[in-house]
Structure formats: C-alpha cells, structure tokens
Amino acid sequence: MKEILKALVDVIWKMPQGLLVTFKHMFKKPITLDYPKKKEPMAPRFKGLHYLERYEDGSERCVCCGLCAAACPADAVYMEPDENENGERLAKVYEINMLRCIFCGFCEEACPEEAIFLGREYEFATDSREGFIYSKDQLLVPHPRKESAFKRTIRRIRKIYGVEESR
Amino acid sequence: MEQKTLTLNMGPQHPATHGVLRVILEVDGEKIVKATPVVGYLHTGIEKTMESKLYYKAIPCTDRMDYLAPMSNNLGYCLAVEKLMDIEVPEKVKWARVCLAELSRIKSHLVWLGTHAMDLGAVSMSLYAFREREMIVDIYEACGGQRMMTTYIRIGGLAYDLPPDFEKLVRKFLKEMPARLDDYETLLTNNQIFIRRTKDVAVISAEDAINWSLSGPMLRGSGVKQDLRKDNPYSGYENFDFDIALGETGDAYDRYKLRLEEMRQSLRIIQQAIDGMPSGPYRAHVPGVVLPPKEDILHKMESLIFHFKLITDGFKSPKGAVYQGIEAPKGELGFYISSDGTNRPNRVRVRPPSFVNLACLPVLCEGSLISDAVCAIGTIDIVLGEVDR
After folding, report:
1. CATH of domain A50-157
2. A109 to chain B: which residues are within 8 Å by CB?
3. For residue B321, with 0-12 CB atoms within 10 Å meaning exposed, 13-18 middle and 19 or more buried, which class applies?
4. Count of beta carbons in the 10 Å neighbourhood of residue B256
C-alpha cells in the first residue's frame, strides 16, 4: 500500500517536472538546421573541393612540379607536364580523383607555387564514377574573376600560414 | 543426442554491436553459456599500408583507426616517430597537443555515453551527447579544417598554428560543458531503468582485468590505478594537475560513473592547458625532417630545397625500434615502429586498446542474460575500425 502511494506521489509530483523541461525547450532556439536551405558556417580552414588558382593576369599558377602528386597519401593526383609558346612549364593534364581523395590538404601544404587550394565546396555528388575525376578545366577558377574575391582568398590563405599581407 | 544449447549469431549487422562485430552466442534459454567474438569484418590493412608509406604520409592512416578520437591516434604515432628521430618539440606544441588529446577524450566518451545509453533504452541521451560533441568537432574544424579525420598533429609539431579563435572556442566549451555533464547525471545516474540494466552487469574483477591485460576505463573500473598519463608521462602531462578516476566493483555502472568523472578531469586539464598555453613556434626547427614554414618556402632557397626533398623522399630514420604508448580514451594505445634505416617504416604495429579490451567479452557476459550482452559490448567501448585495423 505504501509503495503504491509513493508511486502515485511520484507520478503526480514528478510528471509535471519532466513536462516542464519539455515545455521550456519550446522557447529555446533549436540546435538543428534546416539543412539544404540553411547551412552551417564553415571555419576559415575548411577543406573542401580543390581549385587551381591563377595569377592576376589570368595565367595559371601551377607549373606541374608534381609535389602535390608526391605528397598525396591516396595517390589521387595525376599530371602530365607541357610547355607553352613562351617556354613556361604548365600542366597538360591535371586530374584529381575525388573518389580517392581523402581531403587531408597535403597537396595544399606541399604546393610551392600557391596554386592548389582546398576550397569550400562540399556538395559535389554525381551519379557516375567518371564524374568524380576532375580535369584541369573543372579545377581552374574562371578567369575574369572578381578581383575582390581573389584578393580575399589570398588574404585568407596567408592568414592561415602566417605570411604578412604586404607581400 | 538432444542438443541443449542454441547457437545464436549476434551481428555482424546488429545495431548494438557498434559496427561489424560478430558474436557467436551459445544460449541455454535466455542464459549465455558461451560467447565468442569474431573480428575482422572491417579489416583494412592499415598497419600494412603504413609500412608502404613515407613516415609523414602515414598520419592520415592513424586517423582512420579510432575515428572517434583521431587526435589521440595522431599524437601516439607522432610521438613514436619523434622518439625514433629524437626530435624535441617546442613547449607550445606539447601544451596544445595535451589540450587537443583531452578534447578527443571527451569527444570519444560522449559518443560512448550516447550510444551506450541508447543501447539500454535511453534514446534521448544520444541526442544530448552528440550536441556537445558538435562543439568539439567545431574546434577541430577551426584547427585543421577537418571535422573527423583531422590529421592536425604532425611529426615535430602541428600542421598549422592554433587558430586565432581557438582560445575563445575552447573557453566557450569549458564554460558550458560542466553543466551539461550534470544534466547527464540527472538523466542517468539515478535512473532506475539504467541502474537495473548496468548494476552488477558485465562485472570483471581486478585480478581478471590485469590478467586479460585490459587498460583504460575497463581496468580502472575494477579499481586498478593505472594511467599512462601519470605512470609514464608523455607530451608534458607531468605539468598538469589531475586525478585518476577509479571504480570499485568493476561493473558497467561503475565504468559509466568513471567515464563521466574522466570527462570532468579532462575539463580540468584543458582549463590548465588553455590558461598556461605558452607562446612560441608551432613546429620544431629540424631541417630535413620537419617541413619548414610556408613563408620560408616562398622566399628562401634552402627551405625550398628541404621542402622538395622532404615531400618527395621523406626523411631517413636511424635503424632501431621504438615503442610509444599513450593513454587514449579507450585505453593504452601503443605504436611500435621498427626501422631498417630507410625512409619507410619496416614494420608498424599498433597496440589497439579496443581489440585487447574486446577479448574479455566472454568473461563479461558468460552466465548472464542475452540482453546483458548488449550492455557488455557497449561498456567495453569498442570502435571496430580500431579492432580490425
């Protein structure tokens, strides 16, 4: 009898307590996001889809030295060198297999020309295996690019590596 | 002849085995007569892969073993290589590494808490635990750009300097976390269902725990005071003031309380680390072994040469073998590296805490009910990526 009474008191007294917790949460900001519509802000160092940077006049920064391919732990980078009419080295073929890539950022660290960066794009699903092998045309940033965006990127990367902005 | 027992396969596709663990249970009614864990369904050959890679390229492999505590794995491997190469890292690196390793301990314990409680019926617990985990993952993202496979701790230092907002993020976490831990306690510690599912379940005595060479919370839960952070300090743990949490009876409930206490102690360590973080370089200056800073590569010839040499060829290690054990969230994580004088390790052997701890599963659940096997698997805190490697 005593136990039943105790259980009854528990229900009468403790149920509202529990419900109060639930009720309070109705006025709190939810921690979940309405994902495809809203997105979580990314950290400045976020490692997403690669892109190949250009000089301000539009020529490619990459000289096809092969350091990114050498540094890649997953052997995702493939390249073939070529020369342009001025005798400057550049990549004829530059491919990154995004299925192999583990997004460790070793290529970005290895690059001595500041040519390859890991960008902020992370939604690049396709429906075929071939679609994941990114060629140079897909990786290069479009040429008539907004100046401010370009400078902003360089500033961001330099901030990470601790290079002064004046250079 | 009449068969008395029934053989029951639990797993490999069973949500309560935390991955692809298979347990062959021989049951007599509801009682378990014999339990045999079968591992290997997630074998990825990580040890062998590491042998074929240059020393610095093997770091991403370590992330993928215990993917719930990547920083601890990075730390163990890098300490082992640093021991082999005889590199002394700057003070700031040591403190930052301690801070990150303790964050990964909390992260790992949070996932354990969420999944273990969910196995036992407290589903909302996992939502709370993953909510707090998000803060740690955000700190990781700010540090290394990756949320899970961080690869942030490198041989001779860190990948990049600590981010400018590191202190702010960690302090925010330190401010919020103690109250959240108290919340968990109100949900579980006095919860009758949870107590009945865990108290006197999956018991292992101190003597048995030592004989099965358990480590981490599994060993300390039985009351054996063993913690590599105190016994054999690495990465400057001797500078920190913290207590070793101990259990008494060695049952699942004890280990739950112990892990909560460990999280509190980790918070203490992080607080000390963030308060006393020294300033200085984030990498040791060892030309030819540690990558030079990026600005030197752009402006100094020697640095560029070292950079090319190091990335294409790696560095040559002296002949010999080293063992470095660290106190990972799940127990003693050891890396044994034997070198034959080339730029690749001759043999890398990992002493995985999950694998060794899993071996005692028959002791934990033989003679108990089938439903207690779920509790026993949960309380060991296994990650199958580490068990099978």
Report:
1. 3.30.70.3270
2. 159, 291, 294
3. middle
4. 27
DSSP E strand boundaries for chain B? 6-10, 22-28, 31-38, 153-154, 157-158, 320-328, 331-339, 347-351
Range of the domain at B104: 46-201+237-284+317-327+342-352
Q: Where are the alpha helices (DSSP H) in chain A?
A: 2-25, 67-71, 106-110, 136-139, 147-161
CATH code, B54: 1.10.645.10
- Which residues contact residue B5 at a Cβ distance below 8 angstroms, ignoring those fewer than 6 apart? B26, B27, B28, B33, B34
pTM, two decimals, is 0.87
Q: What is the pLDDT of residues A100-126, one digit of tens each?
A: 999 888 888 888 888 888 888 888 888
Of all residues in chain B, the one with the smallest CA distance to A108 is B294
For the stretch B122-145, pLDDT in tens is 888 888 899 889 899 999 988 888
**Closest CB to B141 among A43, A67, A104:** A43
Nearest Cα of chain B lies from the Cα of A99 at a distance, in angstroms, of: 16
Q: Complex ipTM above 0.90?
A: no
